[in-house]
Each structure stands twice: as C-alpha cells, then as structure tokens.
C-alpha cells in the first residue's frame, strides 16, 4: 500500500482488461489516476465502481495528438505534474500475411505505435520540466518471439521494445525511467478470441501451468512505476509464467 502515494498517473486503455485492474491497483497504492480511453461507457462504469476514490476518466483517443495534448494540459493545470505514464492501450486485428488488409495493418500501427508515441512525446515534455517521471509501455511476448497471424501486432510490440530502449537513452539523463512489460497470454477479453484448444496448449507450454491474470501485469506496472525500480531503465520485463525461456 501507498507505494505510489500522491503520484499523478495516466493509464491509457484503462477502462477494460489489464488497464482496468491497473487503475484499481494504482488507486490502492495511493496514486491519483487519470484513465484515458475511447470507451466512454466502460469509463463511466469504472468511475461508478470507484466512487469517492482519486480517479478521473477522460475520453482520449491516443491516436489523436490534439486530444492527448488537451487532456495532459488539463492535468497540468489542476495538479502541476504528471509523474507516471502507463502506455497500456493496444488492439489486435489478426490475419495471416496473405490475408491482412491495409486497414488491419494500419489500425494496429496507429494505436499500438502512434498512440504510444503521442502520449510519450506530450507527457515526457512535462516530466522533463519536473526532472522526474516513470514511463511503462505494454509490449507482448509475441513482440519478442513472433506469432502466427499477427504481422501487424508483432511489428508494433517489437517496435515498443525498441522505443523503450530509445526513450530510456533520451530521457534517462532527465530523470525519467522508461521500461516495458511483455505479458504472456493473459485471461482478458482479448484472449477470448483465441480457440479453446490453443489456450489449453498454451497452458501446457507454460512452466507455471496457467494463463496470466490481469493482476500479474498490473503488479509489474506498479513495480516499474515505483521508487523500488529507480535504477531500472530501458528493460523489458517478461511476465509470462516462463512461457518462453
Ligand atoms: P483490452 O482490449 O481488454 O483493453 C484495451 C483498452 O484500450 C480498451 O479499453 C480500449 O477501449 C482501449 N483503447 C483501444 N484503442 C484506444 C485508443 N486509440 N485510445 C485510447 N484507448 C484505446 O486489452 P488488454 O488485454 O487489457 O491489453 C492491454 C495491453 O496489454 C495491450 O497493449 C495489449 O496489447 C497488451 N497485451 C495483452 C495481452 C493479453 O493476453 N491480454 C498479452 C500481451 C500484451
């Protein structure tokens, strides 16, 4: 408890899945949380569930730099700082190489790379002024090892690992830590689209014998955002039960 006391945190894609559990963990740890998501209905539900807690929801499409700038400026006006950015929003649009449409390719690049770039560019500017900050990006086990039918997604999740190293170099001297988390297969809606047989197969291949829980990733986000991780920079932390070792 209170590992993030008083810290102002932006969590993108915080209205569902891993992001939603992360919002709760960050609140438990004493953070002031801003959830940025395009899903207003889920965002309002989240607010309802967390009445009386330090949570704000903003409808922000991370692809749109003007929306990101506006939402960040509002936080700066109210709190004077953004201490933590969790670049968690991400989408999949799966198809094999031969069947992937231009739209499937581009939409995944837009959210998983441009969205991450936009939020980091805008928020790191404010962090640099303060001389401190923590940025954590959502990669994936498939960004490290590839996956059938996910050219677009794999490209972005591998790209996020590269960007994490790049930004760790650029921003480290300004007092900002940039790291990534590479989740294995986590039991959220995203995984519900995967056939049952494949899930059983993945569980069998995981030394810990189960899929991950959103809490497993949320715990890694908290750790990398906390002072306990103050000398960790540019790393990608695999949280996959040992699926690929
Ligand atoms: P999810 O689909 O449950 O939630 C993603 C959230 O992002 C949704 O609330 C959605 O509305 C929001 N979002 C989508 N586009 C957005 C945009 N342009 N701007 C703002 N918000 C947007 O996803 P899940 O499973 O919780 O995944 C979270 C992150 O973890 C993603 O980056 C995903 O790629 C990554 N990941 C997930 C794994 C899994 O097994 N679930 C495995 C490895 C990585």
UniProtKB/TrEMBL annotation:
Highest rank taxon of the organism: Bacteria
Record-linked SUPFAM superfamilies: NAD(P)-binding Rossmann-fold domains
Coiled-coil boundaries: none
Keywords for the protein's UniProt record, in alphabetical order: Oxidoreductase
Record's keyword annotation contains Oxidoreductase: yes
Domain annotation Ketoreductase: ranges: 7-184
InterPro entries recorded: KR_dom, NAD(P)-bd_dom_sf, Sc_DH/Rdtase_CS, SDR_fam
Family membership: Belongs to the short-chain dehydrogenases/reductases (SDR) family.
Protein name: Beta-ketoacyl-ACP reductase
């Amino acid at each position: 408890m209170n590992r993030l006391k008083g810290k102002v945190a932006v969590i993108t894609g915080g209205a569902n899945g891993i992001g939603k559990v992360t919002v709760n963990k960050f609140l438990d740890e004493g953070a002031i949380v801003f959830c940025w998501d395009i899903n207003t209905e889920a965002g309002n539900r989240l607010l309802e569930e967390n009445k009386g807690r330090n949570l704000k929801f903003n409808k922000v499409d991370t692809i749109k730099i003007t929306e990101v700038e506006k939402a960040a400026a509002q936080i700066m006006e109210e709190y004077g700082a953004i201490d933590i950015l969790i670049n968690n929003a991400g989408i999949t649009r799966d198809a094999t190489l031969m069947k992937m449409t231009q739209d499937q390719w581009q939409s995944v690049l837009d959210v998983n790379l441009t969205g991450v770039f936009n939020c980091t560019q805008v928020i790191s500017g404010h962090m640099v002024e303060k001389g401190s900050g923590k940025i954590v990006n959502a990669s994936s086990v498939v960004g490290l090892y590839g996956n059938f039918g996910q050219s677009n997604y794999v490209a972005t999740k591998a790209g996020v690992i590269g960007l994490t190293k790049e930004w760790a170099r650029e921003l480290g001297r300004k007092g900002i830590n940039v790291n990534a988390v590479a989740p294995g297969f986590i039991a959220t809606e995203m995984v519900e689209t995967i056939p049952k047989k494949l899930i059983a197969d993945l569980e069998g291949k995981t030394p810990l014998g189960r899929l991950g829980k959103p809490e497993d990733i949320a715990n890694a986000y908290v750790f990398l955002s906390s002072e306990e991780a103050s000398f960790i920079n540019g790393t990608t932390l695999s949280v996959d039960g040992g699926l690929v070792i």
